[in-house]
Design a protein that fits this description.
With 365 residues, the chain is α+β, with helices and mostly antiparallel strands. It has helices at residues 4-14, 64-87, 146-156, 159-172, 199-211, 218-235, 240-247, 251-266, 298-315, 350-364, and strands at 22-30, 33-44, 47-55, 94-97, 103-106, 113-121, 131-134, 139-145, 182-185, 191-194, 277-280, 285-292, 320-328, 334-342. 41% of the residues lie in helices and 26% in strands. The protein has an 8-stranded mixed beta sheet, with helices on both faces. Strands 11-12-13-14 form a 4-stranded mixed beta sheet, sandwiched between helices. A two-stranded antiparallel sheet has the order 9-10. The longest helix is centred in the N-terminal third of the chain and has 24 residues, at 64-87.
Length: 365
């Protein structure tokens, strides 16, 4: 049975990661019988976040520090190490129990990187080292109190950056505690000087370092998750790469998508076309976000896609352009359609170059 702490942490985690990628109480069988891998396992692109949860009984007689050393620094760390070694064993079969106690087997890719996290509850006033270095794993195991874990998620918000922060968290927190003053040269003209005191300070420092502070309103996170849910429901099977690109967005891209999404909702019945939003994954694929004006024709849409799809494909040397099209309906309703346009970059010629220059001129105007 999942205890209260695990349920609470799962609820928090589900606000920021997609539910289909979250598994609670993952088990496996080996020569010792049935064993639990971890309390929560989150899959995110090329990573697994493996979480061990420890809850101090409120009726327990041991002091917080004694309990922390025994249960967190020894037992939970030992479990984290074991879970990593287990995942790397390709012969292990993993599964979870459904509500009817039936087993549901899950496929775990042992080539993915693993982020180890321990979260403890009911000892919130304890001063603790936030990172533990494991020699056997040659990596940091992150330690959070329940409150700090919640603060970190709420502060950073975007899955891509939550993963990035847990990978870099030890940069800001030297083992053994103590005060640390940090100098970060952000540009030739701007240097960050800070002395973080708590988890919110550390999380905000990460955002400053990467984005010069990127705020995303809580209600916007809800819009973003709503948008991702719509794409996942209708298109994840046909276009998994599109969903992966959207799901792995950093704060800058997420903010742009959210802004475009919200602007689309506000102007869903607008009869004028606007410049599309384009982003890419720095490889071979891009995403073109288009709002089809209310009552506009299919021919107009096709012409719009032809112009801007071609422009962004050849301008950025992208052979695949995913299309996310917001289509307005009656009574302020809308639907989202998605598609894929492929381009042969070898066909780039003088006429194509002329077309790109014409659209470049439109952008400047």
């Amino acid at each position: 049975m999942t205890n209260v702490s695990e349920e609470l942490i799962t609820q928090i985690t589900q606000k920021f990661f997609f539910e289909k990628n979250i598994y609670t109480n993952v088990f496996f069988i080996n020569s010792d019988g049935e064993n639990e891998l971890c309390d929560i396992l989150i899959e995110f692109i090329d990573f697994y976040i493996c979480i061990q949860v420890k809850e101090k009984s409120k009726s327990g007689k041991s002091e917080d520090l004694q309990w922390f050393k025994r249960t967190v620094l020894k037992k939970a760390i030992r479990q984290a190490k074991k879970s990593e070694h287990t995942i790397k064993n390709e012969n292990i079969d993993f599964y979870i129990y459904l509500t009817n106690r039936e087993k549901q087997h899950i496929c775990i890719d042992n080539n993915k990187s693993i982020i180890q996290i321990v979260v403890f509850c009911n000892s919130e006033n304890l001063t603790y080292d936030r990172c533990y270095f494991s020699k056997s794993l040659n990596k940091i195991i992150n330690i959070f109190s329940y409150d700090d874990f919640s603060i970190m998620l709420e502060t950073i918000s975007i899955p891509y950056d939550i993963v990035g922060y847990t990978l870099q968290r030890s940069i800001y927190m030297p083992l053994g505690g103590g005060k640390r003053f940090i100098f970060e040269e952000l540009t030739d003209d701007l240097t960050l000087f800070s002395a973080p005191n708590n988890e919110k300070d550390y999380a905000e420092m990460y955002l400053v370092k990467n984005y010069y502070r990127q705020d995303i309103k809580p209600e916007y996170i809800q819009f973003y998750n709503e948008f991702l849910s719509m794409i996942y429901k209708d298109y994840s099977a046909q276009m998994p790469k599109l969903f992966d690109m959207l799901f792995s967005a950093d704060a800058n891209l997420a903010n742009r998508i959210i802004s475009y999404y919200c602007r689309t909702l506000e102007r869903i019945k607008d009869k004028t076309w606007e410049t599309p939003l384009f982003t890419h994954n720095n490889k071979d694929s891009g995403i073109l976000f288009i709002r089809k004006p209310y009552l506009s024709s299919t021919d107009e849409l096709n012409n719009y896609i032809s112009n801007f799809g071609t422009y962004f494909a050849y301008k950025n040397k992208m052979s695949n352009i995913f299309l996310v099209i917001f289509v307005g309906g009656e009574r302020d309703t809308f639907t989202i359609n998605a598609g894929l346009s492929k381009y042969d970059l070898s066909l780039f010629d003088t006429e194509m170059e002329k077309k790109i220059k014409e659209i470049d001129k439109l952008f400047r105007e």
